[in-house]
Design goal:
The chain is α+β, with helices and mostly antiparallel strands and about 270 residues long. It is about 20% helix and about 25% strand. A hairpin with a 4-residue loop joins strand 3 and strand 4.
């Protein structure tokens, strides 16, 4: 597994002077390039002593090149050794993680502290969420955000909203319909009706709990189980297909009044 470092932390990597099979080589030169997760070059340099006695070279990536635009970013260091007859490459990959893994309208509708506060509003037991650590909870919230973004929403704009009567923007809005909510920035999200934003946030917590294993009943229903007797270990299966949704039923219910179900072209209000 790739090592994980805090954002803006200097990272020191030790690279063997060897080929892909681990055999030592005697290069005449060595250069390196650091790439991000999209394959774009971040920075580069050369090695002063490409063939040290230790047969290892040490490369330090300064903190300015270890900035994550999202919660987690990746870096790949490619070291190219020049040897008689060609070149040999060595590659090292590491991850950069922000101190706060969640960013509103980057990968979540909520911050982590807000998620903890919202969780208290449900009461009862969230079997998946309550037994998971922060890292797992944040990962589930990010996944839940992605699932919720697959739905199309219809909301009512207030007269003061800058989107009231908005008809353009084919990739985001069409009248009162939000076609791809993940394309909104934080400012645009804050302009949405407060009740809708609250419903989205609550749905994200519920969906995260399910992803963490908190809703075993849903998985059984998905398999067609409609009745189960624990003592006799008997089950009944529905012959009707289970409605496949991008989110769990409980999260769907949180957003029930806002989900746009109509098939066809919406022309606005």
């Amino acid at each position: 597994m790739a090592a994980v470092y805090a954002q803006e932390q200097p990272v020191t990597l030790t690279v063997p002077v060897a080929d892909a099979m681990g055999n030592e080589i005697a290069p005449s030169a060595a250069n390196w390039v650091l790439f991000d997760e999209d394959g774009a070059e971040v920075t580069s340099g050369s090695v002063v002593d490409p063939n040290p006695v230790s047969k290892k070279i040490v490369i330090t990536i300064t903190g300015e090149h270890n900035v994550a635009p999202v919660s987690t970013a990746a870096r790949e260091l490619v070291v190219t050794f020049t040897v008689p007859g060609g070149v040999v490459e060595q590659r090292e990959i590491y991850l950069i993680q922000r101190s706060s893994p969640l960013g509103v309208m980057e990968n979540s509708f909520v911050t982590y502290p807000e998620a903890l506060a919202l969780r208290q509003g449900f009461g009862g037991m969230f079997a998946g969420w309550d037994t998971s650590d922060k890292s797992a909870q944040c990962a589930a919230l990010i996944h839940a955000y992605s699932n919720l973004a697959q739905l199309t929403y219809k909301v009512g704009w207030s007269d003061s909203s800058r989107y009231a009567g908005y008809e353009n923007g084919a990739d985001r809005f069409c009248g009162r319909v939000i076609k791809n909510i993940s394309l909104l920035d934080q400012s645009e999200f804050q302009d949405l009706p407060s009740n809708f934003r609250k419903a989205l946030k609550r749905a994200q917590i519920v969906e995260a709990d399910t992803l963490l294993g908190g809703d075993t009943l849903a998985s059984r229903r998905r398999d067609g189980v409609i009745s189960e007797t624990i003592g006799e270990s008997s089950m009944m299966f529905s012959t009707k297909p289970y409605l496949e949704l991008p989110v769990c039923r409980a999260a769907y219910r949180e957003l029930n009044g806002y989900i746009y179900r109509r098939i066809g072209v919406f022309r606005g209000a």
